[in-house]
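Archive entry. Fields below.
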Amino acid sequence: MRGYGHSRHPVRLFSLYGSLILLALFVLGPLLYLLAQSFMTPAEAGQYPPKLLPSGLYTGGLKNAIETVPIFGFIVNSFVLAIAIMVLQVLTAALAAYAFVYIRFSGSRFWFALFISTMMIPWEVTIIPNYLTVKSWGWLDSFQGLIVPFAASAFGVFLLRQFFLQLPRELFEAARIDGCGHFRHFVSVVLPLSGPAAASLAVYVFLNGWNQYLWPLLITSSDAMRTVQIGIAMLQFEELTSWNLVLCGVALVLVPSLVLLALGLKPLVRGITAGAVKG
Amino acid sequence: MDSSLYKDKPEPVLSPVSEAGTPIAAARLRRMREQLLGYLFLAPSLAVFTLFLFYPMARSVYLSFQLTDPRGRVAAYAGWDNYSRMMESSAFWNSLWITVKFTLLTVPAGLALGLLCASLVHAAGRGSKLFRFVFSVPLALSVGTASILWMILYHPTLGMLNYLLGQVGIAPIQWLTDPSAALGSVSLMTIWMNSGFPFVLLLAAIQGLDNDVMDSSRIDGASMWRTFFSIKLPLLSPTLFFLAVVSIMSAFQSFGQVNILTRGGPAGSTDVLVYSIYREAFVNYQFGTGSALAIVLFALMLLLTAVQFLVLGKKVHYQ
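PREDICTED_STRUCTURE:
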């Protein structure tokens, strides 16, 4: 936009865009390879030396992947899981953040510090007991087991609290004078206003849920409950011979995240940068 | 910060206690309701944290002093045995060393790549939006899909990478099966997969820099490189520092790519800490020693957080 005075010089301009294109090739290269492969016929994909571009837009591979692998089921599972976690986390975070900002109760500072301190516990440190807990409740291989442990997050509370603190206080005063209780104030004033922050959190949480690996790997065992990330990795070992099919599966799994990224890049970036300011 | 604005109003002086207890009682009731409501709003989060963070954290500590049967039930008290055996085992030290090497391979390179991309995108005029999207794309990648994709790229005889190397006359590399190459291969793929986050943060930080400072240094005749190293970099240091800490933490927690690409091998050359926890607990069913390893991970994270606070504390004074 505000291009640098320095870079107007043609040589500089050339090196600037040259480096950008090289870096973009490193970042996009593997994905372009994936895209090209998923439109190749099995014969083209198996060729050596490898072909760079498909001869046409062959969609048989993608269809085949949908038909032969329970990939559609994996996608549905991951959607259910990611959306449930997203809704729950935004809701629990909004409630807690509301309490920290608007409700005067003793110990609120202590609880906030405790909430923030949970960010220091790496999830991997708790997986063994969590696995044993979920197993003892009979929640292995179930949606509850996949969703409930992630129904709340300190990061979400922190992000929404920062946002609520910036809302004009007059609104709260006015609502109180109108005799509006906390619940009504929460539902009809704060929630509708928290759109942007909630959107940031939602995109972030959805992507994290969709991309989860270790936990679903531990607690799911049947094809009916597998999530995409695990399902696709299983595919790799079972059907090593048919790359084409595997790559088509990977492409199908990537589509939802890429679409979401394209639509939600702005709120996502806002969320990430807001999270980083905490220092 | 949340000042007395919302505190219940002080009792009106006009209604003395002796005359009627009711206003005070009402106020107390209101305050109690407020108190109750506060906990009610916190309850859902608190319940999840208690069940899935605090309790398991405590249980990890407990389990690390026990021997367990394969179903996870405590079989016998082990005392410090799990820890002392861990300290004596070369596999533990190997795993710790691999984790450190993996961190050194991924974090500085990842930050440098992010800084380079962000600076270039910021400097670009036309097309900067397109490049911004391109460099943000890895945010959508997951460890599952990214690992599979690279596994195929890394294939020793049919993979694209060895083919490209062959085109420029370089002998094929056994990316994932050569013990001296495997960790590097896993790191390269990790840098690629994680490159979105540093880019996004650094771009935001660069865009937030005061343009006047940059302009005036340029008018003073400072070269682009000089401006970059003596003005931009110091101004970006808080963001870079934050990113370094977060990336080190995430490098210490890496698991998926190792599990998919190498399973810790060949010859333990990619056996990072979380993978060894996983192997101990969920392959060998040694929940006690697995927990001891997890506690080590927790201690390391705590140390990193402490360092972060110390350095940041200094920063604040410094400015």
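CURATOR_NOTE: Chain A touches chain B through 99 residues (CB under 8 Å).
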